[in-house]
Design goal:
alpha/beta, 17 helices, globular, binds adenine, binds zinc ion
């Protein structure tokens, strides 16, 4: 089974590039830029990555991102993750980045965008890596700040496929961001939003009805609302589920309690993703392996989850058909 997990061509649809910052690069960059961190070693960093909820993780995630300063830092971050894609046979990845985490520290789009895009171009040239960017707004900040961020991104829109919504969910419902999502749509950007990670099923309804998203990030709290389950199944709305993230952030106490296979059985278009792999103890293949160990994921379920990743992606219909055909030939 682990062989098949490795061999299958896969997508990743829910990945925060800032969440791929590994402890070694974190320490290296903190020295380079003289950023004072509360950790002295990789072991101390691992010991600190013990979270009780989303906010306790976000506090360390934003602290970690503070070592990303110049264009080369952003290049290195992106390059290392794209190498991981090659290693794990992730043939197409749709990566979120949080511009406000950087612009609020005085680091402009003109620094991080060229770093990201150069690494993506190099990976495309060297091994045909397919990748695109989703610009996520931080929902703990105001809608006006999101609108200003969208305006600042205008010179870079040819490199941005979609907008997203992330950070502290509770108390920051999707309805807070209706105008900025309308503006994004008018710029021909696709839309995704984190909803129903810690927040209630109603936030998923809001993401669907008010933000008119093309995909829901997490969405696992949909189980609380039978009508929502029915709608998600009927519309084949993709959910980008992140099993290791959900257990690390105590959305589920144990992987054995994760609901992804129940949602799959209800014909909901669930996909498997790693979210912030450096913080949650595994990249994409490790997420599939964790499902196999805890929930006895079988081959048929694995293939369906992997195919759902292509179906739920922003690839063209032709590209989707190409990869789905390849999977059929492999198994
Ligand atoms: N930012 C990075 N990872 C996140 C997550 N799992 N939920 C909300 N915001 C995030
Ligand atoms: Zn996320």
């Amino acid at each position: 089974m682990n062989n098949l997990i490795q061999q299958l061509p896969k997508t990743e649809l829910h990945l925060h590039i800032e969440g791929t910052l590994e402890p070694d690069l974190l320490l290296e960059l903190s020295k380079k830029h003289h950023v004072d961190l509360p950790y002295k070693s990789i072991d101390e960093i691992h010991a600190a990555y013990n979270f009780e909820d989303l906010q306790s993780f976000l506090d360390l995630y934003y602290l970690g991102a503070s070592v990303l300063v110049d264009e080369d830092d952003f290049y290195q971050l992106m390059w290392r993750y794209l190498l991981k894609c090659k290693e794990q046979n992730i043939v197409h990845t749709e990566m979120m980045f949080d511009p406000q985490t950087h612009t609020d520290r005085g680091i402009p789009f003109a620094t991080f965008m060229p770093g990201f895009v150069r690494a993506m171009d190099d990976a495309a040239q060297q091994w045909g890596q397919s990748s695109l960017l989703i610009m996520s707004f931080l929902r703990h900040l105001t809608e006006q700040e999101a609108i200003d961020t969208l305006a600042a991104a205008k010179p870079y829109l040819q490199h941005i496929e979609a907008v997203g919504l992330d950070s502290s969910e509770l108390g920051n419902p999707p309805e807070k961001f209706v105008r900025v999502f309308e503006q994004a749509k008018s710029l021909a950007l696709s839309c995704v939003a984190h909803a129903g990670e810690e927040g209630p099923a109603d936030y998923i309804w809001q993401a669907l009805k008010l933000l008119k998203v093309d995909r829901v990030d997490h969405g696992v709290r949909c189980v609380d609302d039978p009508k929502l389950l029915q709608t998600l199944a009927e519309t084949q709305m993709p959910l980008t589920v992140c099993p290791l993230s959900n257990t690390k952030l105590c959305v589920f106490d144990d992987m054995k309690e994760h609901n992804i296979l129940d949602l799959l059985a209800k014909d909901i278009l669930v996909t498997v993703n790693s979210d912030d792999p450096s913080y949650f103890g595994g990249y994409l293949n490790e997420n599939f392996e964790a499902l196999q160990q805890a929930l006895n994921l079988n081959q048929q379920q694995l293939i369906k989850l992997v195919k759902n990743g292509f179906t739920g992606s922003f690839l063209s219909e032709q590209q989707k058909a190409h990869w789905l055909g390849k999977i059929d030939k492999l198994v």
